[in-house]
Structures are given as C-alpha cells and as structure tokens.
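Hi F.,

I've been meaning to write this up properly since the lab meeting, where we talked about keeping a consistent format for the predictions we share between groups. The idea is simple: the sequence comes first, exactly as it goes in, then the structure tokens exactly as they come out, then a line or two of notes. No screenshots and no reformatting. I'm using this chain as the first example so we have something concrete to point to.
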Amino acid sequence: MNKERFYRIWNYYTQRQWKFAALGLGLLVAVLLVLHFSRQYMRHHAMDEAVSALEHVMNYTDNRIHEIEAATDSILVEVEQHLDNPDMMFELSRQLLSNHPDLKGCSIAFEPYFFKNQGRYFSAYSYNNGNSIETEQEGDDGYQYFYMDWYLIPFLLDHKYWIEPFQESGTDGIQVNDVMTSYCQPIYNANGKPVGILSADVPLKWLSDLILSEHPMPHSYCMLLGRGGSYIVHPDSTRILYETIFTSTLEKADTARISLGRAMVDGETGYKSLEIDGQQCHVFYMPFRQTGWSIAMVCPDKVILYNYLRLLCILLPIIILSLMLIFLPFWRWLHRHTKLPAASMILITLALASCQSEQSNTEVSKDQQSTQSTSESEYELAEKYYDANQFRSAIIYYKKAVANEDLLHTSPQKYYDSFVGLHTCYSNINNLQEALAAATKGYQLASKDTTIIGRDMANNLLMQIGISQLKLSHANEAAKTFEQVRRQTEELALAHPENGMLQESCLLMASNIINGYLNRHEYKAVEPWLSMMEQALERYAATDVETEKYEHYLASLLCNKAVIYAKTGRKEEADVAYRSYIALPYAQTYYGIYNQAYYLEITEQWQSLLDIQLRIDSAELAAGIPPTLDFLIESPATTFKALLKTNRKEEALQRAQQIISMLDSVKNYQHQSDAEELAVIYETQQKEAQIAQQKEDLNHQRMIGAAIVFVLLIVFLGVLHAMYRKLRKAHAQLEISYQNLVIANERAEESSKMKSNFIRQMSHEIRTPLNILSGFTQIITMSDMTLDNNTRQDINTKIMENTDRITGLVNKMIELSDANSTAVIERTNQVLAIEVAAKAADASGVSEAAHVAFDMKITPEVETLMISTNENAAVRALTMILDNARKFTRPAEAKGDASIEKQNVVLTVERNADFVSFIVEDTGIGIPVNEAEHIFDEFVQLDEYYDGTGIGLTIARSLTRRLGGDIVLDSSYTTGARFVMTLPV
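Output, unedited:
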C-alpha cells in the first residue's frame, strides 16, 4: 500500500514537475528576499539593542561615579570654608572615606608653604585599608606631591579632572599597593585663586567590577579607554596600565583597530566592525561623560546575527526543498538525454552572451573612460598635495596615477611627471632609496618611448637618478649618469633647435645638477655645467621665448657664475657676474633677493647681507610663512649670523632667543602638519576601503542577481522545452494521424474504386457465360429447332465451358474470403513435384491455348522429387499463376489487338536446397518494377482491358505462404513476367 501511494505521488509529481520547479523557484526567491531584508532588520535591531545596552552600562556607572563626585564636591565646600585650620583637613578627608566606603583614599593637598607653620609640604591623606581608616600628613623631599599628575594637571587646567589610572606603591607611613584613578578638584581661596587640590582615589578594581559585572548581551564585554587609548577597564587585567588599544598595531598593521582607537580617543560615538582576538566583532563606543575617557562594548557578530542565524536554520529545510524542486526536473531531463544537455547549455550560454554583449561592451568602455579620468584626477590631486608640501599624501596619489598605463596613453607628459614627482617627494622626506627606485622605474619606461616627449622625460628622469646617487654619496656613479644626461640632452636639443621646450630642458637639467653640486660644496665640479647652461641659454634665446622667462634663466646663470667664481678665487669675475645679476629685474623679486643674500653670505659681505636679510624678514612676516626647520636655517639663522658679524651682539642675542623659542613652535607645527597629513591619508584609505567594500557588495549583489536570472532562465527554458516537447509530440501524433488518415482515405478510395471495378468485372465475367448459357438454352429448348450432331456437340461443349467458368469464379470468391487468413494449411500429401506442375498446366489450360507455345522444363533432380504439401492447394496456386500467364499473353481484343505470333510460356521446376521452385516465364505485357508488390493486393488490375477479377495472384500467394512457401515477381526479368513460387520439400 505504501509503495502504491508512493508511486501515485511520484507519477503526480512527474506529470507536473515543471510546475513544481516554478513553485520551488518562487519559494526560493521569496525565502532569499526574506533572509535579505530580515538580515538587515535583525542586524539593525540587534545593533540598536547593543547601543541601548551600552548606554545602560554607562548610565549605571555614571550614577555611581556621580555619587563620588557629588560627595567630593560637598567636602570641597567645607575645605574652602576652613582654609585657616589645617587640622580640619584631616577630619574632612576621613569624613569623605567614612561616608563612601567605595573610595580608597582622599588627599587634601596645598601649595608649598600655604600653611607656614606646617612647612613646605602639607597634604592630609586618609586611606581605607578595609578594616579602618588611617590618616597622615604626606609630602617630603622624597615625595613632592605638587609635581604629581593628580595635583599638577587639575591645578594648571584650573578645573576638575579625572586622572588616568596609576600605580600607588606607598607613602611614608601608609602602605598602599593599588591601581587607582582619582577625581581631583582645585581648592580656591577667597580671592578665587587655586591654592591646592582635593583628590578622591577610586580603586580601579571597583570601577572594573562595576563595568564588567554588567553583561548587556551574551558573550559580550565592556572596556574603558583613557585619553591616550590606554586600557582602564578590560576583561584581560594584564593589559591595564601596560597596553593601549594601539599596542597590537605596532607589530602588525591593523587599520580597523587604529580607526577604532582614534575614534574613541577623539570622543566620537558610533560603531565599527573589526576582528578582535580572532573573531569578527562589532564594537559600539561613546564618550564616558566629561572625563575624556571612552566606553565601548565588544559584541561578536554571532551575537548580533543570532536571531538571523536562527531564522536561517528554520528556513534551511525550505531552501533545500526549493532547490530540490528546481533541480530535480533538470536532473531527470539530463538523465534521459545524453547529448541534449550540452547543446542546451551552449544555447543558454550563447543567449546570455548575446544578451550581455552590448551591455558588457558599454561597461568596458565606461570603465576605460572612468579609469583614464581617474588616473588624471589622481595626478591632479598629487600635484595639489605636492604644492601644499604634503609629500606623503602626494606619494599616494602619484603611485595611483602610475598604477597602470592609462595615463601614459592619454597624457604621457603627466605620466612621466608622476615619476619625477615621486622622486622629489621621497627626497623631501629623506627616503633616498625609494626616490632612486622611483626615478629608475620611470626612466626604464620613458627610455622605451621614441617620441620627443618620451626622450626628453627619459633624460629628466636620468638626471633625477644622478641627483639621488649624489645625495647617497655615490659621486662617481652620479658623474657618469650626469655625463650621459648631458650627451643625450644636447643631442636631442641640437636635433631640434627650433623647439624651445628642449632648450629649456637643457637649462633646467644643468641648473639642477649645479644646485646638487653646490649643496655638497663641490664647486669645481660645477664649471662644465655652467658652460652647458650658457650654450643652452643662447639656443633658448633664438626660439620664440618670452622675455621674462629668458631673464629668469639668465639671472639663474649669472647668480651661479657669481657663486662659483667667488668660491674658486675669481673675485673680479664674481663681482662682474653679481653686478650683472642685480641689474636684472628678477633680482628684485622675492626669490631674487634670496639669491642675493646667499651670494653675500658666501662672500662674507655682512653689512649688505644684513640690510637684505632684514627686508627678507619683513617680507616673510607679512607673508605669514609657517615655521619650519628649513625656514629657521635659511632666514632667522642667517639674520643672527649677520648681526653677530656686524657686532650688533644685543640684537644677535635677541634673535638667538627668538630662534630658540621658535624651535618649539617649529616642532609643534611639524608634528601638527605630519599628524594632519597622516590623518588625511588614513581617512582617505578608510574611505577607499569603504568604497572597495561597497563595490564588492555591489558585485556580490550583481552576482546574486545574475544567479537568480540564470536560474530563472534555466527554469523558463526548461518549462519552454517541456512545452515544446509536448507540442512536438502532439504535433507528431497529429501528423501521424493525419498521414494515417490520408493513407486510409487513399486506401478507402482505392478500395472503393477496386470494388467498383471488381463488381463491374465480376458482372462482366458472370454475365458473359450466363448470356452464352441462356442463348444456348433457348436454342436447345426451341421445338422447331433442328440441330445436327456436331452443332449439338459444340453447344454442349460451350455450355460446359461456361458452366466451369462460372464455377471457377464462384470458387475464387470463396477462396478470396480466406486470402487474409494466416492459418497454416496442413501438408498431408506426399506428391511428386512434376505431378503438381502437370496438374496445374492441365487445369490452367495453358498447354492447350492456341496463342501460347507452352513448354515445361524439369531439372533432373526433381524428376523423382517427392514433396510434402497439400496437393490441392499447391496445384491451385500454381494453376492461378499459369492462368495469369495464359491470360496476359493473349491479345487484348478490347484494344483491337490482333495476334501476330504465338507467345511463349515456360514452366521450370528446380530444387534450391530445401525448397522446390516453380518458375513461370512468359513473353506477355509484363509488369512495371514499381508494381512488383502491388499486384498481389486484392482487386488490383494493371490493365482493365484484359479479362480477370484481380484476385488470382492474391489467392495464389496466400495459399503458398500458408503452405510455408512464397510467390514473388522477379523484377530483373524484362521480356515479360517471371513469377517464382517456392514450396518446402
């Protein structure tokens, strides 16, 4: 019964499998949508609960801490009312601890000599050791409390303050060994001036127990960070005091943890997802009141997604069932077809490819355009950061600009300039190895470019390589590199003298190499480059160049000459070059004055230098130039030196003090600049990481969408294929039915026609002998008719022949009823084969026919051959074949054919293995090859002009086959017709 029920269910499913597949797909899509939206909802709901739980912990802890603050503030009022009574301070400190057992200690400390009778130190300190409260006056030369953080910080800030946790190891009399944090309040006198500090010591264990005792969510914990990211409260007590949230990032970079630490230290509120202690977690954080601390709750993702995972487990069976409903029909389909699946998959793939080709091409084109525009924008950003002296940021964007060769195809100049920018930025942050590597890589790429821009930038980058080699003290390598630069640069410039850009490149490269040697004070190495610069300037002047730019390079050449000549002992030439320099308008510009100061300094013209330097100082002050170390070296230090050399010592001392005071500003400014730049870099990396994550999520969603579309397409094609198969099957059945109907109709028409012909023929066949019999009967019965013996004999013969003819027709009609029978005729007779042939020849009348020359051929092996058959049936079948030969060798009288000569009919009897063959050949009208089988059908007459009913051959074959033999037409015989009848021996 169970099996029958199973089979019924299975048959019901297989008949509707594609409907179930569609149902499964719809169910799967619905479940996936439920999971997608429920995941977002449950995640947000759990996160809201986590935030609420964190707020609860913070509020609970805040209430307890507020009690301590309120008690301390109330004691502070009494302290300020009894500033004239030092003994009262001990009583008040004990009172605070008595009222609040959670506190570990209380110190009421004052400025040195505040109580003159008490000496320099006075601090009333009470300590709760658990059993009693001990009190003492602390402070001596070994413990100068007014230099301690708990005293100094709130005193300088002039407001209440929570001190970072500290290890209290002990005082003079009271032994303390606790980690504590302190709530400190300034003590004010009547004039509102701070005169001391009231400190309430809270044991860190109490604060930790207070926070860690709360378990707002399963498997979660809270932590408290100090102002610098140090752990104040954490489940792992070994981290307290000794580690910060950034400690683990020192060994292994962890941008997510750094981001969390920065956000908490900055007092932000929010959450971040990151890996903590080997598991993915959500960290929710918010500032802890006004303490400057930050509290956070660490919650594993499995807790955040707990309800979602439960829902997933509940819906998992439905998902599996849906997948089974979807893929089971395909499995069954693939199981039944071995070749069709591959073709189907190819068609599906081609369909998807054709559907997405245009979109893909569009997306690729957009992506290429986006990549190109992005590369250019990265270059522009790098240039802006470079101009702002934020070299680390510039390095990041220069690298992005050359990350691929898209910028090379759109703007080769910017592409190569990016490598120059990388070299310069690395040099400015003193990373010379990276600078050399960047210039080398750029040169390798540019050297393959045979365009003018490529060759010019290759020379420029080769020059940068030489500069780095020079800075790395590889002087010989640098000299070789510079010589190669000179040769290649001049070769390119001389090949294109009309190109002002190439002449300017010669000027710039010579000038940069000169500056490189000047910075190393290698003055003798500069002179060849002065010559190169002078020749390049002459070629540059011959081009269509602006006067201002020409004067700028001329001023640079004259200034370099003046410096080199002065350092190589050619004072007169130096003075001439310097006078020519200051005669140019460029010398009076901001940078031109700097060059004057440089020359005057190296030539020790201190009074002139002082005059110029004071002008420079005024200009820098007006411009608000930010304080940097280079600024101190180039400007204030030069002014100090000039003042000192001109014996203006007091002013020089003031300038020295100014420089010393500015060092802290320089340091702070540099630190601030570096911090701001690093913050920008970090935030940029974070945003890029977020964008990358968003792109990844978007790609993931696209993949899911594509998978759903693909599954839908497969199901649609499957349903379509199933419908197509059903339609094709129905169409095939309809086609077969139609063909059968056509054949049946044709057969019906043919049968009707043959029946009509048969009836007509039978009417003719019967009417003719009946007319003869009727006529002769009338003659014989006439009373007055006298007939001689011959006539009467002839009449009798005619009557007998026609009677036999009618009898034969009737017998054929009877035999026709058995023509379609498959019943075997019993072979009960043993008869000679030649006897069957002889009897058939006599019965057919072929041997006596006047128009036929009949011949019977007997092979020797059948003369005495006995066959086991039914004699009557065998003779009857052979008789009909011979009668057919006799009939169709006679001229057709209805056509008016006249007999010309006799036709031949030959009966051959021979043995073939276990069969005896009766072969009847005639020279009659013959039978077409395409009618070789048709003539054996009922009522078939190929020529209606001959007598016959069209059933003789049908009966003959039926009788022969029922005897175990057969009758066939030998179509290879073309003289007439040849029938072969075989019977088993």
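Notes:
Residues 338-372, 892-898 have pLDDT under 50 and may be disordered.
Residues 333 and 341 are 8 Å apart (CA to CA).

If this format works for you, I'll send the rest the same way.

G.
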